[in-house]
Amino acid sequence: MKREILDKGFIQVIDKLGNDLTVVNSARVSFGKRKEKFDESDRKLVKYLAKHKHWSPFRHLMVQFHVKAPEFVMRQWYKHVVGIETTSTSSAKDHAWNEISGRYVPVTDFYSPHNWRRQSDDNKQASEGSIDNQEAANNLFSEVMQHVLNSYEKLLELGVAKEQARMILPLNQYTEVYWTASFQAIMNFIDLRDEATAQWEIREYAKAMKEMMLEIYPETTKIWFEVN
Ligand SMILES: Cc1cc2nc3c(=O)[nH]c(=O)nc-3n(C[C@H](O)[C@H](O)[C@H](O)COP(=O)(O)OP(=O)(O)OC[C@H]3O[C@@H](n4cnc5c(N)ncnc54)[C@H](O)[C@@H]3O)c2cc1C
Hints:
Blueprint: E1 2-5, E2 9-17, H1 20-28, H2 40-51, E3 62-70, H3 71-77, E4 96-99, E5 118-119, E6 127-128, H4 134-157, H5 162-165, E7 174-182, H6 183-193, H7 200-216, H8 218-227
Antiparallel strand pairs: 1-2, 2-3, 3-7, 4-7, 5-6
The chain binds flavin-adenine dinucleotide.
């Protein structure tokens, strides 16, 4: 399952744990019961669990994503930190990150926006619509990118280490990560990032992730969004 995002990015499901029955069976272990087929009573139970914040059963569902995104998008993603550190004993410790390293591999891909958005008047961190002079912005962007890329290649040719040459690269460089997280953590990401005030680029990833979750865990995801 894979979705192309932006000009060179993507999000792909590598692996998943559990199905719609996992949540209800995890909850029903409390009274020693287990179901083999999802039915109306399970729908009610999932709704009850989600509504009353009984979130631990939702953490038995895990998805491993392969994400390719510009660094400025990934910097926003990195803020979803619950569970990244490995010493915590918290039950919310459910993320795992691994990332391509610009110390090993030269950076080759950069994001080029198809639209230059205007600074929002009423929200200091947001954008709205488009600027009028797209051509001028495109020209400026291409000029800077050409200069940066030439200089990066030149530094590598001079024998400068990749770990140091990359210092001159801008935030539109693409990076790749494997991100494994629980259903609860993924829903938190979607809630916060497929939202009107989130940046357009990260919303594209959150929207695709929402579609994928609806495919992987259709009942649980649908109910979660009805309740939350
Ligand atoms: C539109 C937008 C703009 C933003 N702007 C900025 C910005 O300008 N600067 C900036 O630094 N960040 C910014 N952020 C990031 C934001 O502050 C959060 O760090 C990020 O969205 C991760 O959310 P989270 O804390 O829910 O995720 P996680 O850290 O993954 O936490 C998941 C959930 O775990 C629980 N939790 C986490 N830690 C604790 C704790 N210590 N105690 C109890 N419960 C806990 C909470 O319920 C939390 O929602 C922005 C986010 C959005 C969506």
